[in-house]
Design goal:
Blueprint lengths: L11 E7 L4 E9 L5 E8 L4 H21 L5 E8 L8 H12 L5 E5 L5 H8 L19 H20 L8 E5 L3 H12 L3 E5 L3 H11 L2 E2 L12 E4 L8 H6 L4 E2 L12 H7 L3 E2 L2 H4 L2 H10 L5 H25 L3 H20 L1
Parallel strand pairs: 3-4, 3-5, 6-7, 6-9, 7-8, 9-10, 10-11
Antiparallel strand pairs: 1-2, 2-4
Helix pairs in contact: 1-12, 2-3, 4-5, 4-10, 4-11, 5-6, 10-11, 11-12
């Protein structure tokens, strides 16, 4: 862990193996200064164990930042399950994951992420109370991804004013990478706002369905970077903004729901040099964890969620404006805000 490029002062890293179910899982806790580590569970067929560890570390750090920027009483944690979500799922595997989570005694709360559904998490819930994002239960509100999509769309509208001088998205060309739960939701909202859409995804079935619903034009996954666009919205896996893709992007605004969009930290400065307004991922995509935080409180409150979403957009605009005023990359301004809030919480605990 200490030698991993994703290590960022993490509190702990936990490995779990269950022979009977085949569970291979990692739970990373970056910080619990503001509260228990909160973050989803991702199931992915990683090439190596090091890749799985790196993903858990980076994602959990991102959750610390996301929860702090959204001003939630949660720290940062993340679970990853090493396996093919199309072939390796079973009820017993997720029950074993539930026992793993429960062994941390509330230090980590989980919900669903890439490759995991509310139905999967229902099996986890059979073994632990530290689960949210469920379809049934006293405070359940279901899959949080629609709220994530709504937050991304709201942030995109607001950030468009800085990039184009107007918040309206009518006739704006938006290239949306990813047609899953979040990307698909962004597509629907953007289409309703009158935007012209180009979409890509490796899942052809999801792609066709979204295209039929929204009138979006389908392009190959690699070709999405070459579309003549106003806005690029990455909503798939991380690392989409890199030295190769940045040369190809013609957008003036990047606003999407994917985690870890910048392949390397220097990409933030490169975006700034290119004159691209960047909505830092861990700010704009905080809607889902806001929804989860309301569930964790024990009483789901839609009005509280809406108020927090409005506050999140205000924070996003503060970050973008401060970045422009200070001539600093937006993600560094957002990280500084997160660090400040985490440090303040840590000092209160000592």
């Amino acid at each position: 862990m200490f030698e991993s490029p994703g290590f960022a002062g993490h509190e702990s890293l936990h490995h779990f193996y269950d022979e009977d179910s085949g569970l291979r899982a990692i739970i990373a806790l970056h910080s619990t200064a503001r509260g228990p580590g909160g973050g989803g569970c991702r199931m992915w067929n990683y090439a190596t164990a090091d890749e799985a560890i790196s993903d858990a570390l980076r994602l959990s750090q991102g959750m610390s930042y996301k929860n702090a920027v959204a001003d939630l009483p949660l720290g940062g944690g993340k679970a990853v399950v090493w396996g093919d979500p199309h072939k390796d799922k079973s009820p017993e595997l997720f029950r074993a994951l539930g026992r793993a989570i429960d062994s941390l005694n509330g230090a980590y709360w989980s919900a669903e992420d890439v490759g995991v559904t509310p139905a999967d998490m229902a099996y986890v819930r059979e073994e632990t109370r530290y689960v949210a994002g469920l379809d049934e239960g006293e405070a359940a509100s279901g899959d949080p991804s629609p709220v994530t999509a709504r937050g991304v769309f709201m942030g995109m509208q607001a950030a468009a004013e800085r990039a184009f001088g107007t918040t309206g998205l009518s006739n704006r060309v938006i290239a949306i990478q990813g047609a899953g739960n979040v990307g698909g939701g962004v597509c629907r909202l953007a289409a309703d706002a009158g935007a012209k859409l180009y979409i890509s995804d490796v899942n052809q079935d999801a792609l066709q369905q979204i295209a039929e619903e929204t009138g979006a034009t389908i392009v190959d996954p690699d070709a999405i970077y070459d579309v003549e666009m106003d806005i690029f919205s990455p909503n798939a896996l991380g690392g989409s903004i890199n030295t190769d893709t940045l040369k190809r992007l013609s957008c003036k605004l990047i606003a999407g729901g994917a985690n870890n969009q910048l392949a390397t930290p220097d990409m933030g400065a490169a975006l700034q040099d290119k004159g691209v307004v960047y909505a830092p991922d861990f700010v704009i995509n905080g809607g889902g964890i806001i929804n989860i935080a309301s569930e964790i409180s024990g009483v789901y409150d839609p009005a509280w969620v809406d108020k927090k979403l409005d506050g999140l957009v205000e924070t996003l605009m503060r970050v973008i404006d401060e970045a422009a005023q200070r001539e600093q990359p937006a993600h560094l301004v957002a990280e500084a805000l997160a660090h400040k809030r985490i440090a303040e919480a840590a000092s209160r605990k000592t």
